[in-house]
Every structure is written in C-alpha cells, then in structure tokens.
Amino acid sequence: MRFVDSFLDGVRRLEEIVHQARIEGDVAEIDAKGLKHKELNDLMRFCVERGAKKLILKNVCGQRYIGTRLFFNPGVKVEIIIYGTPGNDLGAFLAGHRIVVYGNAQDGVGNTMDDGEIIVHGRAGDVVAMAMRGGKIFIRDSVGYRTAIHMKEYMDRVPLLVVGGTAQDFLGEYMAGGRVVLLGLNLENGRHRCHYIGTGMHGGVIYLRGKVEKYQLGKEVGVVEMEEEDWKFLEKVVDEFCGYFGREIKMERDEILGGNFMKLIPVTKRPYGKVYSY
Amino acid sequence: MIKPRDDKEFQGCGIFGVMDRSGKRFNGEMIVEAMKNMHVRGNGLGGGFAVYGLYPKYKDYYCLHVMIQDWNEEAKMEVDRFLDANFDIVHDEEIPTNEDANVENPPLFWRYFVSPQKKGEDKKLSDDDYVIKKVMHINTKIKDAYVISSGKNMGVFKGVGFPEDIAEFFMIEKYKGYIWTAHSRFPTNTPGWWGGAHPFCILDWTVVHNGEISSYGTNKRYLEMFGYYCTLQTDTEVMAYAFDLLMRRQGLPIEIVAKILAPPMWDIIDHMDEKKKKLYTTLRMVYAPLLINGPWTVIVAHHGEMFGLTDRIRLRPITAGEKGDLLFLSSEEAAIRAVCPDLDRVWTPHGGEPVVGRLNEKALKKVIG
Amino acid sequence: MKSHLLPDFVVERIEERCNRCGVCVKQCPWGVYSWNEDKTEILIDYTKCVGCQRCVVYCPNKALIVRPYPGSYRPNAYWTKEVISDIKKQAEQGGVLLVGTGSDRPYKVYFDHILLNASQVTNPSIDPLREPMELRTFLGRKPDRLEIEIDGDDVEIKTELYPNLVVETPILFAGMSYGALSKNAFLALAMAAKEFGTLFCTGEGGLPKDMREEYGPVAIVQCASGRFGVDPEYLNCAAAIEIKIGQGAKPGIGGHLPGEKVTAEISATRMIPEGTDALSPAPHHDIYSIEDLSMLIYALKEATNYEKPVFVKIAAVHNVAAIASGIVRAGADVIVIDGFRGGTGASPKVMRDHVGIPIELAIAAVDQRLREEGIRHKCSIIASGGIRCSADVVKAIALGADAVYIGTAALIALGCTMCQKCYTGKCAWGICTQDPNLAKRLNPKEGAKRLVNLLRAWSLEIKDMLGGMGINAIESLRSNREQLRGIGLEEWELRVLGIKGAGE
User: Fold this and answer.
1) What residue segments make up the domains of chain B, in order of their start?
2) Mutate to test the interface with A, among B265, B331, B333, B340 (most CBs of A within 10 A)
3) Contacting residues of C for A45, CB less than 8 Å apart
4) Distance (Å, rounded) from C-alpha B76 to C-alpha B109?
5) pLDDT of amino acid C359
6) Is B13 part of the annotated catalytic residue set?
7) What residues does each domain of chain A span?
8) pLDDT tens digits, C266-303
9) How close is the nearest chain A Cα to the Cα of B351, in Å?
C-alpha cells in the first residue's frame, strides 16, 4: 500500500540545491524559494559549516524548523535573517542563535528553545515559547493560544518573551518560570480578551499592560503590586522592544511605560498539592 | 480497493479555502499551489477539492458526481437505471481525467445533471430532501457506487493521493469557481479508499475538516434521531450532518450554530449579561448532544457562503487572510502567502468564533439568482 | 478527623528471637517502630505498615513477620474491603486516590493463556549451551529493499540507511525518570545497560550532565510533555530519542513530581527551581493531532541531524492499531506500546485500574495492522507494560514485538517489593525516593550487578525456549505466531491474538 514520507519524499541532494546559496566572507544568502523544509536546513547547516556567521534567507514560505539543525559542539553562534513567512517550529530547540524575521511567524516559535534570540517583525501563531528554557523572544504584534506554556527557569537562566500586542486564551498555562510581558499596544478598548491566563502557573512572572477581569485569570494566579524592581525590569524590556520595533509602532517608550501594568505571579509553587488523598 | 473498516477513522490534515466575495470565478491553480505549500500536513492518502459556481450552464440542475469503484459496470448500469427512474437526466458524461496523473487504481467518475421526478409519497418531500433520500439510496444500496457530491452548480473532486496529484488527475485547473476548498489527508485508517477522502458533501454543503471528534458517539446517536446515518465512520460526516440539520433544516445562522458546536465555557457564560447568559445557557441546554468535543477545524461552504470554525479551545489551527474581495482560510499562513504574498489583513480567530465570507449583494443575485 | 480505616498489615514479633537491637526502627521509614522513652522496648504501630518487608529482610534475628491484616468487614463479593477503604479515604480527605506500580486488579492475563511450542521429531531442537543462539536485535526503520552495486568482489550498498540501534538481548529498560527514581537506582539501570549491551530509557526527568558522556550512548532520552531537561546537548548525546505520548498506567493524563522531591540535583537536571512541582501536561501542547506528531518527530530529527532514531511511546488503548499505523506514517522509527499493566511511580488509582487494554492484544493488533498495510518494516515495535519473566518476552516477540521494555521487573531486581507506595517518596529500598538516607541504601554497583544477572538469566532462558522451537536467531521468532497456542481463550480472543487454540 502506498507509503509516502511526505517530509523526506523528494528531498534533493545538497549538490542539486547548493546554487541557491551564496557565501561571501562570513555572510551567506539563501534563496529559499521552492526549498523543502529539510533542504533549507541542509543548506543552512552547509553554510555554517563553511564558516558563515550570518545567514540571510529570502523568499521563505512555510519552511519549518529554521535554526533547529544548528547545534554544534562546541557552540557556534550565528545570526539568521528571514524574509517571508517561516513555517512552524521556528527556532525549535534553538542552541543560542539569533533569528530575526521580517514578516509573520506561525505556530511553535521557540519551541523548547534553549538559548538565543528570536525577533519577529510581525505576529506569531499558537504555542509561542512553549517549554522555553532560556534566551529571549520579541514579537511585535499579537500571538495565539497557549503562549509561553510550560516556560521554565533555572537559576540565572530566565527566558523572556515580550509580545507587543495581545494573546489568546491560556497564556502562561503551566508556566514554571521565566518572564512574559504583554504590552497590549493594539488593544481596541484597552482590554485583553484572553481567558485562563496563567492557569496552572507555578513559577515565573507575567506582566500585562491593559485590563483584564479577575475571572479571566486562572485559579492559580495572583495579582500583586508592581515594585520598583519590576519597573526597572520593564524599562529595560520596553527599551529593547522599542529598539527593535520603534519605527514600526505608533507608540513611544514613555507612553508604553505610562500604561496600566499588572503583575501576575503564581499563588503557590505547588498548585496541585491538595487534589490527592492518601 | 480497501473499503472502510468498521472502526472509526482518525486523521490529521491540512485544509484551505478561498472565496471571491464579488462572485468572480477563478480556476483551481491557486488552491493547488496553496496545498502544495502544506504538503507535509498530509501523507498522500487523500486529497480533494470542492468548487462553487462550477457548472453555470446547468446551474438549475442538481449535479451528481458518482464514483464507481473498480469500474464495476453493473454498478454503473444500476445507477443509470435508478437515476432514470427518479430524475430527469438532462445531461451526463464521464468526468474527464488525466491518465498520466500520479494516482493508483482510480475508480470511474461520472457526472449527471438532473432534476427530481417525484412520485407518490415522495411528492411531499422538498427537492432537497428528495435528492438526499435518493443519494442515500445509491450510497447504501448500490454496491460499488458512491455519490461524492450532489449540489447545484458545484462539485467535489477527490481521491487517494496528495491534493496536487488529485488536481492533476481531475485537471482541475480547467474548472472555475468563486469558492474553492481543499483538503490534504493524513489518515490512520481507510488509507486506500477514494470515498474516504474529503471534502464531504451533502447537497451543496461541503465540509473539509482537520482533527478528531472525541464526542463522535454522542453526536452520531443524536443525529440518528433526525434520520442521518453515519455510514462512512468519519468525523467529517458528523460535522456535515450537524451543519445540514442546524443550518439548512432548522434555519439557524452560522453565528448561532458556532455557539452550539463550540460553546463558551460555563465560567465565561457566568460572566455575561443576563440576556446573553440566558441565550448561551439555553443553547447549551437544548443542543448539548451537538457540542463537538475534541480538536477540530472545519471549512464549510455552500452557495454564497464559506466559513471557518474551530473547537472552543482552538486545538487545531486556522488562519484567515483578506485581499480585496478575496477571503482565505488556511491551516497555515504560509500557504496563503504562497499564493497571495501581499495581504490586506491576516488574523487568527478565537476558538469557536467563525470567520464568515459571504457574497456581496450584487454577486448574490448574479450567482444564485 | 478520626480515621475509620482498618489497618492493611499486621506486624508480629517472635519475642524469643528479638534482642531489641533496633534495626527495625532504623530500617522502617513508615514509622511503624519506635523506642519507648528509656530505650528499653520497641513499640509497634502496625497501622502505619505498608508491607514493604524491609524490616523482615533486615532483622538480623529473623524475629518479624509482616502479613495482611486478618480482620475485615463482613464478607461481601461486591463491596469488598478495598472498595470500602477507598470510599472512606476519599470521604476523609476529598481527593484523588494515588497509587504506585501497575494495576493489581484480577483482569485476565493473556500471557498465562498462551503456551509455547517445541520441536519433536520433525525438526530438531537446538542446544543453546553448545550451539550458537543469537539474540542480537536491530531497532529502527528498514528500507523497502537494498540496492547494491557489484564490482568484481566489491559489493557496495547504494541504499541510504536509516539510523538503527543494536542491542544484545531484546530486553531494554523502560523509561523511569530521575526524580521518580533515586539517582542510585537510575545509575544502576544505566550501568547495567552499558555492561550488558542494551539500552535504558531516561524517562522524562532529563539526564544529569555528569552521566551524559559515559551513559549517553546507551540512553534513550525522553522528550515528554513537560520537556524537562530537554536541551540540544541532551538530545545529541543519546542513542535515541523517545517521544512519550502516554504510559500504560495512566493513559491520557500527565504526570506530577511533587515539589518536595525536586531536590537541588533534580532541579538542575530538569532545569526548574528547587521545590517546584514538576508538572507534565496530559498532552504535548505542540501535538494535538497526527500531523503535529509528525512535526515533532522531524523537529527532533532536525535537532539531531538525522543521526538518531525517534521512538514514540503510547499507551495501549482501544484503537491502538490505527494509531500505530499513523505513528509509522508520521515518521517514527520505533513504536513503544505500553500495556495497561505498565508501572508508574504515581497514578490516580482510577486511571491505573480502568483505562487501557492488555499489551498482548495490543501487540498482536498492531503487528497485524502494520503487516496488512505493508509497513511493518518501517518501524520496530517494543512491547512494554507488565513483562514479568523470560516467557513473557518470548510470547510478546512471537506476537509481533521486536523487543520488550522492562520496568517493574528491573525495580524488583533492585529490591522493590511492590508495596505500591512509590508516590510517597519514602521507598524503604532506596529506589523511589529522594531522601538521601533512604537512597543510599541502594548501592548502584550492586544494583547494576543484580540487573545484569537478571538480563543474563532471562537471556539464557530465552535461548532455551528458542532452542526448543528449533530456532537459533531471535528474528525467526518475531511474529512467528505458529509457535503459540491459546488455552482457555474465546474465539474472539484467539482471533485478535492471531493464534490457534491448543490442539488445533
């Protein structure tokens, strides 16, 4: 019976696609047009193995796992500039590289990302920063469902996700650490619509700019007063955000910081300690 | 050819829909390109397309696309006899196909343009219900014959292969329509059966669907009370019947139907104003057996309208895009960008909130009359 | 609230043997034994006893007997003591009942209704002690066919091969996490796998950095829904990666390592703060559908440069055959199917005892379906969940598995007595605990020795059984259902298992 591995089927050998890459010094430019998922990643790895430190990807349209294949021991760190729409799992398991997207990203940005930076000049889909363990993600516009689900931190490894717009339901579900900042710059009436914010949250902090009602929050989340160090942290984050997107957004730094911020933290590190008997 | 097993099927997939709200017809090249971009969402075991505004010359006649498995001549003859006895057949022909296409063991496809010839008891039925009844007869009583679409001025083309293979087989670049929907399948069951591909069609309603319905048994038993029998064991069939019952037979708009199939959670309803709370509570109470649970996204079309809807906690993806009169719905944004890089707007609706495309009024008159 | 529960066990002391040495006080972590004020007498509170038998084994004078509490309610075949006790527990505390280990319910054990064949007259049996008897097994995807190029004596393979793993016996250690297990128990499994030439699975708690170089090559590292300790180095140091979708003891639900077990070292391995609950969501939130599974499979292959086979582990559930077919088509190299007897460190009792299907039926159904679809060679199948002895291994392979995972049996080899209290973290045998005083009771070297002995013993027995059938290579047993006959099974059961009845 017909068996097609749709991912690997028809993947061309490197020789057949290498003409779509051009390496000059430590900069490589790849024309991603017509490249299958694996082909693009093959080419990227090829370029990095030949000394490229910066990869410029043009005409990207749906190719998955960009950056995932670039784990080298000992670590080499590269910069990846993407024009177009990268596919799902952009920067999954990312090992410290920097990715900049000029366009929108899809689902799974920074999935289980280990370290590095992802900057998206656009919006992103569902499960952004899922199980992220380190590094930073900046999204200019909004994100979808289950953002920062099960993000976690350890000692000085504290992942950061900054979203310029809003998020859909289950933001920060199961969150076990890290920092999420939702700036709400595109809210119509100043309100976030998402429900179940931080449901099951047991670590980390969510900062929300804009309004949410109490019932939109998960049961495991508490609202606490902003303190000086929170403001200091936010100033740094907003500065960085404006540094990336300042020319593309309508609001100034001070106007952003002048907004109404809310700080959410888990009520307990052990949300489900009480559901068991004996 | 492998027919469905008696266990329910499971599948994942990629789906896409595009509509020109001005009613302008365009050919199938665009949607094939979009589906190619989502190649890895399927595994080559099912692909298909639905087209609206397909047969303007015969737009007043029901068009039946009939699949004859294994080129069974007896089945074909029996279908001919049955249709002749129950309809006026104004035109019929083999659906042209491309022999060089990358598909295995294609069945025979034939199309009939017909108008109902009701007799006796059947005279009480509306034309639509009469057609459904006769279609069900062919599907359940005539061995090796399946009606894969049965609406006016529309049609479904589907089979085993990647969508691009099926497109090549039916040469769909030659057809034009103002709505196109498509499906790429990743089944874990009925892997070799052409009838198991999507879209699923009843009258001019088509459904393409991604996901698995956890409430299948509950939904199915409820629909049986209204005369719908799920013979294909697919989730998509349940969806199609639910839309037919609620929208065609009961006349509810999609905005309400969405709240039946994908209702808000009780703790959201509890925070609504009194009037809204009563509406949502009543909908949930009355139509509880039609809550479609589990992960799903559908793109549904019928004449004049195309909409996309997901389950209430959005466990399957959907992205919408707009460019002028064009409305796109897709599992992935990149597939839209592949055919229309420069969109006016692109967004992801909340779970359970439909994205609806309707023909504008002028177009409505022109297309539907 | 006053507890209405009856004791589970009673402890009896043979007074003339006891010399009040106090070993029992030290050994019991449950608080059964305590000294009186002037340390002249040892008091026994048997209501706290869980029946782990630690005190009995370690009592130097063999003065102790621990047995089930003889008193009970009025005999009732329906409202049993267990049912009554469970209701009382929940009425007192209002929560979900937790248990450890696999289900202890008396559902039918299919292994015990299957008998093996042996050669007589028509085909010679083989003596495994003197003639070669091969158990070496390859795990991974195989190509449809091999293309070769012959140039004189030189034969070149042209087909590109998929990564495969080799094990010297078709027995691997199932996923049990560091966190659920003590470091010593975890280490013992790794050491034994390395010594015997097989593999161990890390479970979802990560692989401590200090173990990666030495034991990475024999580790199947898990990528589960919590993604604990999943970093690029972890994935790349291993022999293979296992996506854990579900486990037989609790299909459809997640896991939960309570904060008190998240010690400094565990927190470093899992990369979460000390004392934080380690919650594993019920699903992977990037997998809601079969094409999403495919997406994660290839994400992992991308992350490891296509050098490692990817396993997918699922619990055996109703439509396991169709699901397995989808998993193969999604790109998995190995499918692990965990039957409903599969063990656990903690599961809600109701899930453990009521969800899933037996492994024997699942393996037979999956093997059959994949063969019907012509894709059986595209993956290897590992049977898991309740493998108790070498005969179970042989039967599982003859039903269609390539190899088996053992979990509970390995822990029993390390000292476990199946008291089912793993979730309390007080394991008296040092296996399922993070209490350093308890964990040090298990010496990893000695533990590894016991495990290697077990693998050796079972492998010898498997060779005996194979020899009896006239088979000298394990691959000739795989899916060789002619070597099996059912006894005491109904028609439908024989049909699903694909075997004949005894005498047929």
Assistant:
1) 11-54+173-368, 56-152
2) B333
3) 305
4) 10
5) 98
6) yes
7) 88-266
8) 999 998 888 888 889 999 999 999 999 999 999 999 99
9) 9
SS (H, E, C) C355-423: CCCCHHHHHHHHHHHHHHCCCHHHCEEEEECCCCCHHHHHHHHHHCCCEEEECHHHHHHHCCCCCCCHH
* Chain A residues whose beta carbon lies within 8 Å of the beta carbon of residue B14: none
Q: Tell me, which fold does domain C9-95 have in CATH?
A: Alpha-Beta Plaits (3.30.70)
Q: How far is the C-alpha of C431 from the C-alpha of C425, rounded, in Å?
A: 9
User: Chain C partners of B212 at a C-beta cutoff of 8 Å?
Assistant: 289
Contacts with B42 from chain C: Cβ below 8 Å: 291
pLDDT score for B236: 86
- At the top level of CATH, which class does the domain C137-141+170-501 belong to? alpha beta
Position A11 pLDDT exceeds 50: yes
Neighbours of chain B (3+ CB pairs under 8 A): A, C
Q: Give me the mean pLDDT over the B321-340 stretch.
A: 97
Class of domain B56-152: alpha beta
pLDDT category of residue C47 using cuts at 50, 70 and 90 = very high
Summarize the confidence of residues C18-22 as an average pLDDT. Answer: 96
Residues C333-362: pLDDT tens digits? 999 999 999 999 999 999 999 999 999 999
Q: What is the pLDDT of residues B91-130, one digit of tens each?
A: 999 999 999 999 999 999 999 999 999 999 999 999 999 9
Domain ranges, ordered by start, for chain C: 9-95, 137-141+170-501
| CATH no., domain A88-266 | 2.160.20.60
Residues 90-119 of chain B whose Cβ lies under 8 A from any Cβ of chain A: 104
Looking at residue A59, its amino acid is: N
Contact B333 A168 (CB under 8 A): no
Q: Is A64 on the interface with B (CB under 8 A)?
A: yes
Q: What pTM does this model have? A: 0.93
What is the rounded CA–CA span in Å between residue C92 and residue B343? 61
Query: Do the chains contact at B314 and A168, CB–CB below 8 Å?
Result: yes
| Stretch (H or E) spanning B256 | helix B254-261
Rg (CA), chain B: 20
Instruction: Specify whether domain B11-54+173-368 bears CATH 3.60.20.10.
Output: yes
The answer to whether the beta carbons of residues B337 and A61 sit under 8 Å apart is yes
ipTM of the complex: 0.93
A275 touches chain B (CB under 8 A): no
